[in-house]
Amino acid sequence: MTATGEATRLARGVLAGETLAIARMISQVERGTADGTADLAEIYRAGGRARVIGVTGPAGAGKSTLVAVLAAELRRRGLTIGIVAVDPTSPYSGGSVLGDRIRMQALWDDPGVFIRSMATRHALGGLARATGDAVAVLDAAGKDVVIIETVGVGQDEVEIARTAHTIVVVSAPGLGDDIQALKAGLLEIADVHVVNKADREGADRTIAELRAVQALAARTGWQTPVLATCAESGDGVPAVADAVDAHHRWLLEGGELEDRERAIAAYRLKTLLTALVHERVDRPTPGSAFAAAVDALYRRTLDPWSAALALLDEAGGPTKGTA
Amino acid sequence: MTPAEKAAAPVRVLMAKVGLDGHDRGVKVVARALRDAGMEVIYTGLHRTPEQVVGSALQEDVDVIGVSLLSGAHMTLLPRLLELLREQGIGDKILIAGGVMPDEDAAALKQMGVAEIFGQDTPPADIVAAVHRMVGEQRAAVGTG
């Protein structure tokens, strides 16, 4: 592969924090190209310094607007920011209109903020397949904070909890039964609750309900705050930044950060490995061990369980309990 | 990246309105047509400066920048966009424009490096086809170069 020269050049640019290199490498990791993989290998070790904040919540709660004002507040505190804003891909056309950036225009003229819009490209779970890789690029490029904005989520899209250090769940009054949805899935992953559009009718009730549910939740040492904001005007945003900072300090001082980072690493490895296995078995190369095993099954010289376990052993050593 | 890998990636397009021009119906219709054709469209809204458009295009690493202009300021704003794109090292991005422009202006702008100019009466399907063709040609050129 003649890719190495290009990979090294791009990787150097990313490590130097160059905008063009960051942008191009994110495109490569999104496409999952060989160059992208080589680039990631170059920069991965340089990462691990950025604080990763996930912002999630139902559609219409004001996630993008909150991300914009939170980023501006963190900028005032002297931090550089990378933002990955995820929007859904149309299941019909495969296209998408990525509209998060438009809510962040106050940040556009600030060279300390890098914003990237990303389509899910059919991935489920609220993030794109390449979101974690894009975070790795921004991290290696020296951004102090990386903020991930998920698609508008329901109950089950909690993948963000396995991708970020601190999770901000944004809700708003008047979104119907969203508190019910929050109770089921999103509530458990929130490190900071934000009730946005707090100037609207019903905000007090939403806040009270969240606090009541929060009081019941058995959590480990960290008391998830429920904060009211009006992201449009900026009211309450410094308190959100304070809470995010406090959570990060708690992660550091309580030793929880290592647990979270190990969980994030395990999740990334698991999802990547699963994806690669899917890819290989969906399109097996002729003559591969998989193709040979299929043949053996067909001839009934081997049974499915023995064949599958043998393939796994070959790929990653014997599994526990079968050795 | 191999030519096959590059050709398979969805086309990314940044759509913008620059300058003092509040008419965004056309740009939204085109954005939607591009989306429905499987492209990823980043819409950046009204009253953008050329600097903001180019800064966004840089970070988003789009293939195409589509600018809608109905204000009559195309002979100042489009050359400025081309200049900024080159300054930022992304002169290879395809800049297209749509709106009301006299033929002689359109010819001059294409001479300067605007890839295509679409009039108000251009059917969205024609714009989709043109974008596909231009991006396809550029990706093929990069892939073999």
Describe this structure in words.
- The complex is a heterodimer of chains A (323) and B (145).
- With 323 residues, chain A is an alpha/beta fold.
- Chain A has 3 domains: 46 residues, no CATH class; 207 residues, P-loop containing nucleotide triphosphate hydrolases (Rossmann fold); 54 residues, no CATH class.
- Chain A is 47% helix and 13% strand.
- A 7-stranded parallel beta sheet of chain A has the order 4-2-5-1-6-7-8, with helices on both faces.
- In chain A, helix 2 runs antiparallel to helix 5, helix 4 packs across helix 8 and helix 8 crosses helix 9.
- Chain A starts with a helix and ends in a 7-residue tail after the last helix.
- The relative contact order of chain A is 0.11.
- The mean pLDDT of chain A is 88.
- Chain B has a domain of 100 residues: Rossmann fold (3-Layer(aba) Sandwich).
- Chain B contains 6 helices and 5 strands; from the N terminus they run αβαβαβαβαβα.
- Chain B has a 5-stranded parallel beta sheet with strand order 2-1-3-4-5, with helices on both faces.
Shape type of chain B: globular
Biggest sheet layout of chain B: 5 strands, parallel
CATH architecture of one domain in chain B: 3-Layer(aba) Sandwich
Largest interface: A-B, 36 and 33 residues
Mean model confidence by pLDDT of chain A: 88
What is the CATH top level name of one domain in chain B? Answer: Alpha Beta
In the sheet with the most strands of chain B, the strands line up as: 2-1-3-4-5
- The DSSP helix count of chain B reads 6
Number of domains of chain A: 3
The CATH superfamily name of the largest domain in chain A is P-loop containing nucleotide triphosphate hydrolases
Strand order of the largest sheet of chain A: 4-2-5-1-6-7-8
Instruction: Summarize the helix and strand pattern of chain B as letters.
Output: HEHEHEHEHEH
Average per-residue pLDDT of chain B, rounded, comes to: 89
